[in-house]
Amino acid sequence: MGMTPSPRPARVIDLETMRRKLQAKQRLVRLSPELDGLEMVYSLASDPDSLYGMPILAWGLREDGEVVGLVPWMEALTACHQLDDSEHGCFVGYRDPETEELLDVAPAHKACELEHAAAYFDYEETREITLIQQIPDTQGTHALCIDDDNRPWQLKQVFGWRLYSDGNIEALLADETLVESTPILPGDSCLYPGRSRHRVVYFFQRSIANRIREQDPCTLEALALMVVTDGSG
Questions:
Q1: For the chain, which end, N or C, has fewer CB atoms within 10 Å of the first or last residue's CB respectively?
Q2: Superkingdom, according to UniProt (predicted)?
Q3: What does pTM read for this prediction?
Q4: What is the pLDDT of residues 14-27, one digit of tens each?
């Protein structure tokens, strides 16, 4: 007569630990500015027959080895392939304007550059969050800054971006009262991380920022709707 096998104890799965491990693998560890004009291509549900292009600001290397294009999008410097909103934009691919080639993944030369740089600048991990890298903004990105009080919103130029050891990226804005010399460069003491002073920061390309300054009616209407929607949340 055979023996009845004893039931195995139930395995406890710590979903929170698994989530943290997955996030750690997706953490950005190195940035490289895009200086050759490569673009992100995206589509909109409102115009399904058209494709739109947006300049890539930088490329990022994740801890798991994946290389992603990064664009200032809404409230963050966002990985292109994370754009998955039919209303605001769905990622299609990367485009080289010179060759018209459409790529599904980052170009090999950028992946090689980032991998070598990450190996060279191999920082020792610490418990405290530290500054890993700082790059200039080369596209004239602007930030719409909204505060908790009743002060009017501010439109400020982004001068650079900081990558921290936890993978977060912060935009560098200038405190005009502390500017000692021009042009303002990353590393100047007048610069501060946007979210250290402002409750909400929205990013815009230079062309949109110029329309805001020129008080273009359609742009201001869309901007007012954005601010009202944010304030009611």
A1: N
A2: Bacteria
A3: 0.83
A4: 555 545 555 556 89
